[in-house]
Amino acid sequence: MTKQAQLPPKTCSIERLVTNPPDVKKVLTGKKTATRRNGRYADIGEVMTLENKKFVIDNVYQQKLGELTDAHAQREGFATLEEYKEAILSLHPGMPWLPTMRVWVHEFSPLS
Predict the structure, then answer these.
(1) What pLDDT is stored for residue 5 in this prediction?
(2) How far is residue 102 from each of residues 22, 52, 97, 109, measured CA to CA in Å?
């Protein structure tokens, strides 16, 4: 687990972490428990609110795209890595899928 003190400053705010309506729905129904971004949007322990429901950030760490597995894609709300990859590339036309590209993983869970 990444220690908070080792994380660089956030590049965006937690309010921007999950904004795509289909993704919001996946989070609210429990199908999405992680999201990947080019920057760091949240601190561990920070709370994200979607439609008046609260989710706590459990972990934040970097990962190379080439390290992703079907299990990671499933935490993103997709059945397979290929399905996740197609969805990401359709949202970002012209973006190459580079195995060495590093992204920030934000894992979260419902706050009871």
Answers:
(1) 57
(2) 24, 31, 11, 23
Give the DSSP letter of residue 64: E
SS3 at position 106:
strand
pLDDT the model gives residue 6? 82
The sheet carrying 47-50 orders its strands as 34-37, 102-110, 53-64, 47-50
Mean pLDDT, 10 residues at a time, the chain of 112 residues: 71 96 97 97 98 97 97 98 95 91 97 86
Q: In the block, which residue shows the tokens 């059945």?
A: 79
Instruction: Please say whether the beta carbons of 57 and 1 come within 8 A.
Output: no
Percent composition of the chain: helix, strand, coil (DSSP 3-state, to 5): 30, 25, 45
Query: Which residue's structure tokens are 């590049």?
Result: 11
**CA 16, 44, 38, 55: dihedral to nearest 10 degrees?**
-40
